[in-house]
Amino acid sequence: MTPLLFPNSIWVWWLAFCGPEPVAFAGVIPSTHVSNAGYFCRVGVLGKHCGHRLQLRLMRAMEARARLNGWCSIVSDTTDKMHSANNFIRAGYRLFSPKNPWAWPNTLYWRKDVK
Fold first, then answer.
1. Mean pLDDT score of the chain
2. Rounded to an integer, what distance in angstroms lies between the CA atom of residue 38 and that of residue 35?
3. 5 has a pLDDT exceeding 70
4. H or E stretch including 69?
5. Other CB atoms closer than 10 Å to residue 93's CB: what's the count?
6. Taking the model in full, what pTM does it have?
7. What does the pLDDT read at residue 7?
8. N or C: fewer beta carbons within 10 Å in the chain?
9. d(CA 82, CA 80)
10. What's the burial of 53, exposed, middle or buried (CB within 10 Å: 0-12/13-18/19+)?
């Protein structure tokens, strides 16, 4: 996996490759809704590369980066994607109810302490 760092920023994106082909990506940015937390903003894995724990590996990389940034936790959200919800559970994330929900009415909110 290759992290992409943006100058003067704590936004970080990762790309995973299979040979020269990018097959997965993920990003973490500062949360604008939860104090001292990163926001797991996007993840994607090409269909033929699913089932190889790429999302979990990307989540672990984000958690390590969150610790380097001094954040206490990572938050994220899902709607009707059962595979994503199960991946959050496998990675140790737990459902939580934010003080000010930021997404759709049917959104599930996830949080993991990383300190």
1. 89
2. 9
3. no
4. helix 54-69
5. 24
6. 0.84
7. 47
8. C
9. 6
10. middle
Backbone angles phi, psi at 40, to 5 degrees: -75, 95
Give the pLDDT confidence score for residue 108 in this predicted structure: 94
Give me the count of residues in the chain: 115
DSSP three-state, residue 36: coil
Mean pLDDT of 80-107: 91
Q: Which residue has the tokens 């269909």?
A: 47
Residue 67 DSSP class: H
Tracing tokens 């994330």 back to the chain, one arrives at 93
Q: Strands 12-18, 2-5: parallel, antiparallel or unpaired by DSSP?
A: antiparallel
Res. 6 pLDDT band, cuts 50 70 90:
low
Judge contact between 78 and 84, C-beta under 8 A: yes
Could you tell me which residues come within 8 angstroms of residue 19 by beta carbon, excluding any fewer than 6 positions away? none
Amino acid (one-letter) located at 44: G
Q: Are the beta carbons of 62 and 76 closer than 8 angstroms?
A: no
Which amino acid, residue 58? L
